[in-house]
Amino acid sequence: MLPAGIHQDGGGLRFRVEPTGSRSWILRLTINGRSCTKGLGPYPLVSLEIARDSAVDHRRAAREGRDLAREKRQRAARATAFRQAYEAFFENKAKELRGSRHLVQWPSMMNAYVLPKIGARAVGDITHADIIDVLKPIWFAKPETARRVLQRMHAVFESSILREQREKANPCAGIARELGPRHQNVEHHRAMPYAEVPAFVRLLRESSARSSLAFEWLVLTATRSGETREAVWAEIDEAKALWTIPARRMKMKRAQGPCS
Question: Could you tell me which residues come within 8 angstroms of residue 229 by beta carbon, excluding any fewer than 6 positions away?
Answer without folding.
Answer: 214
